[in-house]
């Protein structure tokens, strides 16, 4: 065994020790974070900082590639990166333990700094990274303390001019003893690695599980929502064409798109929840969840849309919301002159900025507590969120909302504005072809082309379809509840064999027709006609 290969071998053992130490650190930190809040766990805290600081295009890329799993992808990616670093530091630690310990200390410091700078973090947020760092260091130290190389041969044979029988036997016995000892040490080392990885993983998974159990699912299940003082108008017969592949008029909660910056879903206890309406108001107000439920509740169907929705995309959904009219609360708080922006602030520090005038112009802007007949799902903002017809979510739909702060657009930029998105976000008129899509199973003859169109709070006046760039043909609009929801449309197409291009465009109730010109989703929403290619046989 040469020195070089021995050190390569010990380097590999060191890498294993590093990974074992990192697993212990991350896992034990998750367990501590059960007490201090899951957002203080180092992986979540550090990735939270990453999410807040990645450039807009990267965020869009992540949404495009990973969709609603973008956050899971980030966490897994970080874990893999961390494992690589840990392996490197472990390999160094075999030579010089302080270097390895310094590596762990570095990660602990980064974790502490990230956790302490998250919105609403107290000093206890430092605990998970500190405990994790200490335990990780201990594991690394214990693992690399023992010899990590097989012993050098006891006798160097090449020096023997005469190799006697007896000497040989002694050598072999010594070598065998050394080998046994080494095998035993190696067994203990690998056992230690497996133990640390196993215990660390269990602690991590257990921590996540306990955090979820400590969450607000039970509190949510206990909520009894009062009946609305102003029920939603019934959905007219025929609003839902009930065609296969066509998005249903009402999006079920389980299928409702989810977009937010939260790596772990905020768990906001309705019993301790308070909403502060403050800033530039004459009369600041604080409301509890019970206060909110005691007020007259309004129920409305409103279609929510994400500014990041590509033409033809599905970051849009329609639900029946139950809540309190924000306008009434603002009337009581009495905004001061010049307070032209209402900043909704979430329990995790995220903000959106909504024009005060929009909230007070008579539309059904709600502080919502219910969604499709249930308390808000936790990932959709339980216990309370904002819903404002006609504005993209990023400027209006604050989930887990705890503050409405009256300020001005000149004085405050909400979360997405410094990240390159427009301060104002009225929803652009859009339309989508849901069926047919793709190439299979279509034969010549009448084919129903159908989809949805939306121009929230303006309403849709007309939808048109064209085939292969030909003349625009009027589609039939299904009835709808109000101008605040999408509308389904359909068109009978006398399809002929071959490849065809279908396009759709909508005209809103003010008479504006969707422009053909394609623009990116940034900074204020995509434009262009949804186009699908189909094959008819
Ligand atoms: N607290 C919080 N609220 C938020 C966001 C967020 O990142 N954090 N994202 C907004 C965006 S961009 C959209 S499109 C809507 C999406 O609401 P949904 O997840 O219930 O569909 O929530 C909005 N509310
Ligand atoms: Mo969004």
TrEMBL record:
The keyword Metal-binding does not apply. Keywords: Membrane, Transmembrane, Transmembrane helix. Residues 509-537 are annotated as: Disordered. Residues 264-416 form the Oxidoreductase molybdopterin-binding domain. Gene3D superfamilies: 2.60.40.650, Oxidoreductase, molybdopterin-binding domain. InterPro entries: Ig_E-set, OxRdtase_Mopterin-bd_dom, OxRdtase_Mopterin-bd_sf. The chain crosses the membrane at residues 72-92, 99-119, 125-144, 189-210. This is Molybdopterin-dependent oxidoreductase. It comes from Micromonospora zhanjiangensis. The lineage of its organism: Bacteria, Bacillati, Actinomycetota, Actinomycetes, Micromonosporales.
């Amino acid at each position: 065994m040469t020195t070089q290969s021995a050190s390569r071998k010990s380097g590999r053992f060191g890498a294993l020790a590093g990974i074992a130490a990192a697993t212990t650190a991350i896992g034990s930190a998750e367990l501590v974070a059960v007490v201090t809040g899951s957002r203080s766990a180092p992986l979540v805290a550090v990735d939270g900082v990453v999410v807040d600081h990645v450039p807009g295009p990267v965020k869009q890329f992540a949404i495009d590639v990973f969709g609603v799993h973008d956050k899971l992808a980030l966490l897994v990616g970080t874990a893999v990166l961390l494992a690589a670093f840990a392996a490197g530091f472990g390999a160094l630690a075999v030579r010089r333990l302080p270097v390895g310990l310094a590596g762990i200390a570095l990660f602990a410091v980064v974790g502490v700094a990230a956790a302490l700078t998250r919105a609403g973090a107290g000093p206890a947020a430092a605990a998970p990274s500190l405990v994790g760092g200490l335990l990780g260091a201990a594991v690394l130290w214990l693992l690399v303390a023992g010899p990590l190389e097989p012993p050098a041969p006891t006798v160097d044979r090449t020096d023997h001019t005469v190799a006697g029988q007896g000497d040989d036997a002694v050598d072999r016995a010594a070598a065998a003893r050394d080998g046994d000892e080494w095998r035993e040490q190696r067994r203990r080392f690998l056992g230690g690695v497996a133990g640390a990885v196993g215990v660390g993983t269990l602690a991590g998974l257990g921590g996540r599980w306990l955090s979820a159990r400590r969450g607000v699912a039970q509190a949510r299940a206990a909520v009894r929502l009062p009946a609305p003082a102003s029920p939603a108008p019934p959905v007219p017969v025929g609003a839902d064409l009930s065609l296969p592949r066509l998005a249903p008029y009402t999006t079920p909660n389980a299928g409702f798109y989810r977009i937010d910056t939260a790596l772990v879903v905020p768990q906001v206890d309705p019993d301790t929840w308070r909403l502060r309406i403050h800033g530039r108001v004459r009369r600041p107000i604080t409301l509890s969840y019970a206060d909110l439920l005691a007020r007259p509740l309004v129920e409305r169907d409103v279609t929510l849309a994400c500014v990041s929705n590509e033409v033809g995309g599905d970051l849009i959904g329609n639900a029946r919301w139950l809540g309190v009219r924000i306008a009434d609360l603002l009337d009581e708080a009495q905004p001061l002159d010049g307070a032209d922006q209402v900043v909704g602030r979430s329990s995790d520090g995220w903000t959106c900025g909504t024009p005060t005038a929009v909230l007070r112009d008579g539309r059904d802007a709600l502080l919502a507590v219910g969604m499709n007949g249930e308390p808000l799902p936790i990932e959709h903002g339980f216990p309370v969120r904002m819903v404002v017809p006609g504005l993209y979510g990023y400027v209006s739909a604050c989930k887990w909302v705890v503050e409405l702060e009256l300020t001005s657009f000149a004085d405050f930029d909400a979360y997405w504005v410094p990240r390159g998105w427009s301060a104002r976000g009225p929803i652009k008129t859009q339309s989508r072809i849901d069926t047919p899509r793709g190439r299979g199973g279509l034969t010549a003859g009448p084919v129903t082309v159908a989809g949805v169109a939306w121009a929230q709070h303006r309403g849709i006046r007309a939808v048109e379809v064209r085939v292969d760039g030909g003349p625009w043909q009027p589609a039939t609009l299904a009835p709808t509840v109000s101008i605040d929801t999408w509308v389904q449309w359909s068109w009978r197409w006398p399809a002929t064999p071959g490849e065809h291009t279908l396009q759709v465009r909508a005209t809103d109730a003010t008479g504006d027709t969707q422009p053909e010109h394609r623009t990116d989703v940034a900074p204020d929403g995509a434009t262009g006609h949804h186009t699908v290619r189909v094959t008819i046989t």
